[in-house]
User: Which sequence fits this backbone?
């Protein structure tokens, strides 16, 4: 798909885009130990770190995320 079509498709979704900064990188890194056994990627942990920062529920189709246990992390399986 050409870049221009990708931008139009994403704009139509009306997404709330958030910057990924140094604090987010550290937060994702700090989740490595607690999630190591689940095999979560850095991208997975970045999403979880954002959910923690926003006090939001992380929505995923990846069942491994449901193994994340912690008071500040809420995960909802969407399929």
Assistant:
């Amino acid at each position: 798909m050409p870049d221009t079509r990708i931008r139009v498709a994403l704009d139509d979704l009306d997404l709330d885009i958030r910057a990924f900064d140094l604090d987010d990188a550290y937060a994702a890194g700090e989740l490595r130990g607690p999630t190591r056994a689940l095999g979560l990627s850095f991208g997975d942990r970045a999403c979880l770190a954002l959910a923690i920062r926003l006090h939001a529920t992380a929505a995923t189709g990846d069942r491994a995320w449901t193994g994340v246990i912690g008071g500040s992390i809420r995960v909802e399986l969407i399929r």
About this structure: The helical segments are 3-12, 22-30, 32-35, 42-54. The first strand starts at residue 57 and ends at 60. The chain has four helices and two strands.
